[in-house]
Design brief:
about 280 residues, alpha/beta, Rossmann fold, 2 domains, 5 strands
């Protein structure tokens, strides 16, 4: 799914919101607050309501991955807009600890639900098959996404597939240079624009390594550059950066990939799991 599909309008807007310009945020707010109304308006009416040029509205539609205004309206019409108004809960200074905890949990649940909605079955199957047939699988990320890469390595060790995680950009380049077209790199970045990660991606493409990207829903250098993009959706609140919630979605995608691969290697995993259990048994009292 290279962002060419005509679905998931609202999740795309929320996911890309922090990167929008001031004018784009005006259009985004208008759509998010009036999804039912938008589908009955023309591009000219929206432009007049917001005092912007029609071309600005059209460019916004392209910015979030649609061919134009009509394509965006079709996507918007296909979405269930009823629950949207209940979802965005801001943190208030008067909230007690339990209320804050409830809002965090609800935001996390929403992140997972929306990410599940945008998972493209064909892309996910391609990612699973690529990993199943790879000689070696490497996971690259930095910052918060680096912890996700390390978690992925921890999980996939159980499959018996040769795997490792790198969070250092120099090591990513060095290791990628040693791979072949029979290997896979999973690149994890919420923004999809991490310069170091994109350098590793370019090197991997030159070599012919299969690349899988886990990144926020929207057009980004990473989502457009990898062979198989897998998307997450999360939103930002005043006290909670969207990247915090995105890690939960990234981890869940890794979990889903792992379980699929584990099922595909069920017989082969038995030996690997037994060796791991024997090894870690020495750590128990």
């Amino acid at each position: 799914m290279k962002m060419g599909n005509t679905t998931h309008c609202l999740p795309r807007i929320r996911s890309s919101y922090p990167q929008f310009s001031d004018k784009e945020k005006i259009i985004a707010d208008y759509i998010l607050n009036n999804p039912d109304k938008i589908i009955h308006l023309t591009i000219n009416q929206i432009a007049e309501d917001l005092n912007v040029a029609e071309a600005t509205v059209f460019r916004f539609c392209k910015r979030i991955g649609f061919k134009g205004f009509q394509a965006m309206k079709i996507a918007l019409a296909s979405e269930s807009t009823a629950p949207i108004k209940e979802i965005h809960e801001e943190f208030n200074i008067d909230d007690d600890e339990k209320t804050v905890a409830e809002k965090v949990f609800k935001s996390n649940i929403r992140t997972l639900e929306e990410t599940l909605q945008v998972i493209d079955g064909a892309s996910f199957k391609k990612a699973v098959q690529a990993i199943l047939h790879a000689n070696r699988v490497e996971f690259y990320g930095s910052g918060g996404s680096g912890t996700v890469a390390e978690d992925a390595h921890h999980k996939f060790l159980r499959t018996g597939i040769q795997t490792i995680a790198y969070i250092d950009s120099h090591l990513q380049l060095m290791s990628a240079s040693q791979l072949t077209e029979n290997d896979v790199i999973v690149l994890i970045s919420h923004s999809g624009s991490n310069k170091d990660l994109l350098q590793a991606l370019e090197l991997a493409k030159e070599i012919g390594v299969t690349t899988i990207g886990i990144t926020a829903l929207g057009k980004s250098p990473l989502s457009q550059g990898v062979d198989i993009p897998l998307y997450t959706v999360s939103e930002e609140t005043e006290l909670r950066f969207e990247a915090l919630a995105s890690r939960l979605a990234q981890l869940s995608i890794i979990d889903a990939l792992y379980v699929n691969v584990a099922m595909g290697r069920k017989e082969l995993m038995a030996s690997s799991l037994q060796k791991i259990r024997n090894a870690i048994s020495y750590k128990r009292i």
